[in-house]
Predict the 3D structure of the following.
Amino acid sequence: MMTSKKQRYMLAIASGLLLSLAWPPLPFFPLLFIGFVPILWLDEACASSNRSTKNFFRYSYLALLIWNVLTTWWVGATVFGTKDISTAIAGVFANTANPLLMCIPLLGFHLTKKRLGERWGYVSLIAYWITFEFIHLRWDLTWPWLTLGNGFAKVPQVVQWYEYTGVFGGTLWILASNIFIYQLIRKKIGFAVFINSTNKYKPIFLYSTIGILIIPAIISAGIYFTYDEKGTPEDVVVIQPNIDPYNEKFDLSSLDQQLDKLIQLSKERIDDETDYLVWPETAIPQGIFINDLEEDKTIKKVKDFFVQYPDLKLITGINAYQRYDADATATARYAENTHYWFDAFNTAIQLDSSDHIPFYHKSKLVPGVEQMPYPQLFKILEPLAIQMGGISGSLGKQDHRDVFESPDSIGVAPMICYESIYGEYVTEYVRRGGNLFFVITNDGWWGNTAGHKQHLQYARLRSIEARRDLAQSANTGTSAFINQRGDISQQTEWWKPAVIEATLYANDEMT
């Protein structure tokens, strides 16, 4: 397949644009099924050249760079709200390094196809790409925002079978469809295909391609339209205070006013029937030591405001610290003025009428922003990791999920910020007894970009995978309720204070 250098660059650009247009929040998801076709064409076009691998890498990287930049450029948008150089570096790194990592499975496919032929080459593409996504969910440089299966987040009607496969099922669907469609194009222009290329086989291959495209969607639609909500009804109130994360949120002089605003908004809606009240990530921004949580005056003030509602449970985010007598963890730092070691955490807590305060520390941390990757090896570089809120150095985390239980045996899974994009991570909450999903976040860092919209859309996939109702409370961004089919039943407007209420169903069945 001969193509000029200019044509190859056009193919790379076309692939990047197709994948970008297909991505949420845009509505053109069918383009996912052809977004990789130009890359497959480039593989064929480069195969006969002397530097085939180098050339294929160049064009593939361009395509993937365009896709990454056009869909996640907002990662670096924090640069416009802060002068912190580490935040700028993290944003640029995500947009340039992630496509480089994505090239690894493509190069593996290219080399395998050259050595073992087409059939094994295309099988290897699917295997290598899913393996890449699997690993990308698990290491310290994790950035799975563009996991292919996330591309269907805005159309839950077509991926209800995620309760069986997770997002990797969507990745398989996309890659297989691209391979078959590309083979149809090749067959039309006279190139060899998987099977005998005589005319009598062409309809069979065409029907197979159509089947791959529509059968999963038909199965999903059948599940979607016959699914009924399961579980015990719980009345949930979500608060969106809308506090500017750059100019107000972490201003020490405004902390009391912020708390008063949260309390006032809550009083507008809670009553004797309210089971859960949800405040956003770091709703209480002043640092609180976990060691003294029950005695903290701010915590006491919060508990006092809903003392007349003994059945109410409040889930809120805090900035937390924990003291140690020694250098207990890889992320602990030493306080010179008080002479003790401590960790800083991005934490969720549950407050109710009891004296017990369960907590969960965010454990999927943003690389380069909330943590220095592999702190055991690079502890000397930790000061370069700046958590948005003024805490220098990597944040601490925990190695397991914690579920907040209530006296009536309802378990709440607290997810903080972008933890909600990790499907398998979230399902561990379910195994530990999570009946409801609560996401607390602060998406205002990115401005009114696709960032907060994509974050909410991805949460819909978590509801489908685990068949759990979900409430999302955003400081700024979008707060919402999502049902077990992945439908958004209610959501707030961007950059406006809001209070929303809904009945969610606490499901205890496992997918």
Remarks:
- Confidence is low (pLDDT under 50) at residues 189-196, 386-392.
